[in-house]
Design brief:
285 residues, alpha+beta, Mago nashi protein, 5 helices, 37% strand
Length: 285
Amino acid sequence: MKFMFVLLLLSCNSSYKSIPAAMPADFKIEYHYDGGMMNTSRTIIIQSGACSDKGTDEGTPYEYEWNNEDLPGLENLYTELKKLKAFTLKSKNEGEVYDRGGESMRFTINKKDYNVSDSQSNFIIKSDAEEFNKAIELILAYTKAHRIKKTYSMKDFPEKMPDDFTIEYVYNAGDGDRTVYLTKTNCIDQGLLDQKAFNYAWKNTTMPEFETLYSELRKLNAFGLQSEEFANEGDKIDERIKYSVNGKYYAVSNWGNHFITQQDKPSFTESVQLILSYSLKNSRN
């Protein structure tokens, strides 16, 4: 047993010594978070050049992209991660584990990949847990400081409504909650407002009107409205809209600590009015 421990120690030291002191040109970080049974996930890619931060927050998708030209900052991140021996942290496989999410990192250094995982059946060993958490903190802080939310304009979306176009509007406030789901085939409007429950479901037979709704939303650039993050210090009406257009989801959020920008507030308000008016007109027939 002592002999095996010595071999493992020598192997770890050898692996760490193979990490260059200076950041190589191909250095790349891939961070992944899986919320397990929660509908939350995140994938971050950091390198010199194209970077991204994409995922879902309780089912609401988000996407940030940026071109990383901050070479000194990336080199400093590499150095700090190397100090933590982040590239060679160890985990052990505990066998099949159900519904466990977790976090994992993959580092590319001189064309070689180093995988570090505390996800699913892999568990970071106790002696490496502190360094693992610090490494993630560094990566998330770097991402927050550099990421830029991807923006869209009306021209990014087709003039003609695609077949997969859907709308999911969710409302939550002191007077209750509401969910409106609209597609070209089936629609739902349900919730509890002023202590009155309602549940409407109907077949969408008003295709020209639904196409008009798409066109009006497109004119408002409703699919590309922006929000900002602030501390939520009081009660507010939470609203979010998720659109599906040509196989891709676009989320607009005025929920929790996400606030629609002042510039986009009028378009967001009008978007909500269009969606609710369409539902009111067609669901109560």
